[in-house]
Amino acid sequence: MASFAKYKTTAGEFWLIRITLTDPLTKEKKKTTRRGFKKLSEAKLAAKQLEAQEAKLKNNLKSHYFFKDIFSEYEEEYAKHLKPSTVYRKSIDFKKWILPTFGEKRLKDISKKDCQKYIDFMSTQLKSYKPIIIQARNVFDFAVRNDYIELSPFVNTVYPKVTVFEEEEKLENFWNKQQSLYFLERVKNNDTLKRYALFRTLLLTGMRKGELLALQEKDLKDDTQTISITKTLFYDSDGNYQILKPKTPSSIRDIHLDSETYGVLKDLIRQNKKLRLLKGEKDKNRFIFTKETSFEPYRNSYVNEVLNKLCKRYKLPRITVHGLRHSCASLLFAAGVDIKVVQKL
């Protein structure tokens, strides 16, 4: 219930409101005073608006929940529809970039100004900051869909036209034929059989990194000189690997290998077999590309780390493992392969 009182200042007479509002989540009562109303009718209207807002918040209890709690609901929902590897990557992004800003705030207290400030800040932290903003925005959209809030505070926010974030070393999208062949020659003559087999397979087949690391000896078909892609590798936050389905149904495929790539893979399989016999290991999975310290597959980041070192050693433009897929396409084009065949591969 609100009470009203008239008071005087040097500027004249005004009305004030004294009203007690109840936090619908904690049930804590808080006395509030609002001043500066020229007429009693204006003060009464403002009091009604405060009481209506209180009632609305009481009905919409989850707007008082902390962002981190709503995020947990959202995470549980989207995890049903995504691969574990995707859920894992999103979880890392939230913990590092989103929850530190919004996690301890209640939904009702997060304003458009807060979100715009967050966008501006993120534009100074990452070159590719927009996917992070979209993930944060998705939590608010989830809250709107479930009637926890009426409107997302990200509505009508804008991305900076120019960011102050300076790009680090530029990564090339692909190597040309000469660069690719030079790289393979250097690795073949100066590095291990395993690394040569790894990078030759990537460059000559256009395989994804996870597909390559999931390869097992049984996937190499001697009768057809092909290799079967039926799975992909993923390491979770506890350091345990999982074998998952490939990225898309069309990713399941057989790739014909040139004679040298096939021969190098066969040599590596024979080398692995000798090591297993030497160490007395019974490795049922028999991955082709395994760690030097065990017969488990490499973690996903290993290939990029080695590739970065080799680019520097051989003075080649720095490229990502995904860029090797594009490089494979450029090699095929240079060899005169039809564009539709390249697209299918």
Blueprint (SSEs and pairs):
Layout: E1 2-9, E2 12-22, E3 29-37, H1 40-59, H2 67-78, H3 84-102, H4 112-122, H5 130-145, H6 177-190, H7 193-205, H8 209-213, E4 220-221, E5 226-229, E6 232-235, E7 241-244, E8 253-256, H9 259-279, H10 300-313, H11 321-334, H12 339-344
Antiparallel strand pairs: 1-2, 2-3, 4-5, 5-8, 6-7
Helix pairs in contact: 2-3, 3-5, 6-7, 7-9, 7-11
Describe the overall structure.
The protein has twelve helices and eight strands. Residues 166-170 have low confidence and may be disordered. The strands form three sheets. Strands 1-2-3 form a three-stranded antiparallel sheet, with helices on one face. A three-stranded antiparallel sheet has the order 4-5-8, covered by helices on one side. The N and C termini lie far apart (72 Å). It has helices at 40-59, 67-78, 84-102, 112-122, 130-145, 177-190, 193-205, 209-213, 259-279, 300-313, 321-334, 339-344; strands at residues 2-9, 12-22, 29-37, 220-221, 226-229, 232-235, 241-244, 253-256. Helix 3 (84-102) packs across helix 5 (130-145) and helix 7 (193-205) packs across helix 11. The protein is of the alpha+beta class and 345 residues long. It is 48% helix and 13% strand.
Give the gist of this structure.
This protein has helices spanning 40-59, 67-78, 84-102, 112-122, 130-145, 177-190, 193-205, 209-213, 259-279, 300-313, 321-334, 339-344, and strands at 2-9, 12-22, 29-37, 220-221, 226-229, 232-235, 241-244, 253-256.
Name the descriptors:
single chain; 345 residues; alpha+beta; three-stranded antiparallel β-sheet; 13% strand
